[in-house]
Amino acid sequence: MSTSARLRDRRVNLERRATASRAVRTSLVSLAGLIGGPATNQSGDEVGRVVDVVARLYGTDSYPPVTGLILRIGRRHTFLPAHAVGKVHAGHVRLRTARVDLRDFVRRPGEVLLAKDVLDHQLVDVDGVQVTRAADLYLAPLVDQVVLVGVDVSLPTLLRRLGPRRWQARPTPERVLDWQAVAPFAEQATEGPAEVRLRASRTALHRLRPADLADILEDLGRAERQQLLGWLEPEQAADALEEMEPAELQNLLREAQPEHAARLVDEMEPDEATDALRDLTREEREALLTRMPKGEAAELRRLLTHREGTAGGAMTTLLITARPDETVAEVRGRLAEQHEHRTEIDAVAVVDGADRVLCDIPLFDVAVAEDTTPISDLVTWRAQFGPPDTVGADTSLAEAADQLVAARASSLLVVDDSDRPLGRILADDLLDAMLPERGRLHFRRFLQ
Amino acid sequence: MTRDLDTATAAPQAPAPARRTGWRRITMIAAVAGPGLVAANAGNDAAGIATYASAGSQFTYGTLFFMVLVTVALVMVQEMAVRLGAYTGKGLGALIREQFSLRLTALAVFCLLLANTGLVVSEFAGIGAAFELLGIPKWAVIPPAAVLLWALVLFGSYHWAERIFLIMSLAFFAYPVAMILGHPDWGAVGHHLVVPHMEPNKAFILLAVALIGTTVSPYMQFYAAAGVVDRGAKPADYPLIRADAILGAVFACVISLTIIIATASAIGGTGPLDSAAQAAEALKPVAGRNAELLFALGLLGASALAGAVVPLSASYAIGEAAGVERSVSRSFRDAPLFLGLFTAQIVLGAVVAMTPVDVIQLLIGTQVLQGLISPIVLVYLLVLTNRRSVLGPAANGPRYRIAATAVVVGVAAMSTILLVQTVLGWFGLG
């Protein structure tokens, strides 16, 4: 391919892109430019000024339809339903009727005022995994209705809005997020019937990984954060909470409704839940524990008796135990049931009749063994490597870490004085405890 | 942060045991004190010391009553800031963006940035002055100091450095001792504390505005509100937070008063301050011949501490208002605004501090700039706290509204008088 041909191709491409972007630009209407613009009747006389645009965010449609406008006519604010709007242009609206019914606006469930509730407020950008603010919203006039198609989050757009009115109406779609990929937080957006709330929870949010969700939760304001938690399934929310910075998590639990917070802590893995509760004051802790199911609360209380910085304080109580007379297949079956806790399990503790630890079998050995092999064979085989690696509940974490390194394992069993297993301390919990400044460059909330 | 507000008292706390995540950077100071205390005492930085010392040397006890008024203003302003933080759970930057038009947001952000850059200038000037006391020229110190601070915050483990700076800045606690050992004329001090005293000349007004600027600097409100938000304080914790803010403000102003009195009794009436060495005179009763060393130590610690926190808090507030990613953990490509602002403030601050002007005049000049800007930021604060839609039942009541408005108007009036005088001065009418 010659250079001139390549240049020509490039020029054609650029032109195509420019045309496409022009086309997009002319078909989009900027909300910021529309607010304050004139509303004219069929003969072109100004009837009033646009104050706000009303849309139903969580309906059945994939893009929220505009359900009406709020106009300022004289000194009154009145609502104009969508069917009375003829055409929405950049910067002004042409009405279909000459008669305007001077009714005051009343919010219907699920409806939001786009300029007041969404523009300039926080929203979650699901693809970019970040919290951002809407710099502008873009409406697309279709044949029979106007829909909200995207959110602009770029800085140039903010600068455009600072400029004179003539600039404001001109869309600048530099970085536009598709409406499907954002979760807005307008407080009224999810009021109303249950299916509206359900739809909100089924937004793109469930595509997020727990760690991403944790980041987002840390960046959100208080009201938004609780709203987002309300949308998530408790299990998904709990996974995200486990990833949060302890201080942030503590704030989040303090500001949530106690019932909700208790539900979330209940869903968390016991070791993480203990950490979270440890950071709260006694009253707050009790408020949550009393609202939890009895069994879980008792277990957490027991874990809380261990001091922080000891193996007991960082262990998880989730244990898979086996007896020597079981077969590998039976144990595998039990492991399969625990698949939601798979991050907490990396070995099977074998105990004798008196519940004393005989051996700790790594999952690898369980995985490669034959189905029919009795566990006792594995115990015998492991015995040649010496006694099982266990630590006492009050062993310091530094000692536990040394032992873990020496054993070349990824977890250690925590046992009581008579060698009964209490829990398991995992390498990642040890890392958490040993690395003081986790995220050395992490400066999220430096103002604490 | 490991301090629970429920069990907190407003008195400084013993540091709690370190958490498994370690302490976040700025948490350090807050571990010893509440956010209100920290925010208010950030005012006693290099420029603050210079301004207070200058007040003492120029007008002896003449500015004391005015400082009392400024204390009242500071208490009210800080209280409003923490109330907003506690009841909304949002920083001031975010609140302004959500409650005002974008243009007004831009104005607030611009004012904050301007005021803060002025502050950063004064911090670097303070670092330079501290080393000059030790006989090292400032052109050899400021550039490496700027690079070091920038790198520490962005890549380093800043919190160790912070502890060192904090301990160094404790040197200024020698002032109350110096005040007592300096045997001021207590009668005159008492008289000036309660009897209003104003001098209608430009020097006094200029210094008065500088006193406002250094005590009620705009960034403090942002800082205090953010500090409260970051602790997840709820409306239920508000009484404690308020106590903390009020006590912090009063405490900071008491320190400021002791600086004025100590300087006044040491070098009062000698006219304007002309060097850091002169300001160090006031510490002679405590440290004798080592007064300059002690002063340099305090100046260096306080300046370096604020030199990192101030630009960072401005970038943070602006990032919050713009709604962009704001964390130093991201690369420049991911968070260009946040890191760009931070870097720009440090660079600009260091460059201006290098200009060969008289350090003390530069320090006071930056505080005058703060004083001129602070009424604008206070208006935002006042409007926000008046709005029931923001604070609900915690919005300002009618009486409080009148008082707060009076404070804002008073601060604005001082700034306006100064502006008018300056403009007249240009035309030779002053």
Explain what the structure shows.
- The complex is a heterodimer of chains A (448) and B (430).
- In chain A, strands 2, 3, 4, 5, 6, 7 and 8 form a 7-stranded mixed sheet that branches. Chain A has a 4-stranded antiparallel sheet with strand order 1-11-12-13. A 3-stranded antiparallel sheet of chain A has the order 10-9-14, covered by helices on one side.
- In chain A, helix 7 (210-219) packs across helix 9 (234-242).
- With 448 residues, chain A is of the alpha+beta class.
- In chain A, strand 9 (122-125) and strand 10 (130-133) form a beta hairpin.
- Chain A contains 20 helices and 20 strands.
- Chain B is globular.
- Chain B starts with 26 loop residues before the first helix and ends with a helix.
- Chains A and B meet through strand 10, helix 4 and helix 10 of A and helix 5, helix 6, helix 7, helix 12 and helix 16 of B.
Could you estimate the helical fraction of the residues of chain A in percent? 25-40%
Oligomer: heterodimer
Name the poorly predicted regions of chain A: 437-448
Structural class of chain B: mainly alpha
* N-to-C series of helices and strands of chain B: HHHHHHHHHHHHHHHHHHHH
The overall pLDDT average of chain A reads: 81
Q: Indicate the radius of gyration of chain B in whole angstroms.
A: 20 Å
Average pLDDT over all residues of chain B:
79
Terminus-to-terminus distance of chain B:
52 Å
Calculate Rg of chain A over CA atoms. 30 Å
What sort of overall outline of chain B do the alpha carbons produce when their principal axes are compared? globular
Helical run tally of chain B: 20
The secondary structure category of chain A is alpha+beta
The total of helices of chain A stands at 20
Strand content of chain A: 15-25%
Query: Main interface pair?
Result: A-B, 50 and 47 residues
Q: Strand tally of chain B, please?
A: 0
Spatial gap, N to C terminus of chain A: 60 Å
The count of strands of chain A amounts to: 20
How does the major sheet of chain B shape up? none
Percent of residues of chain B in beta strands?
A: under 5%
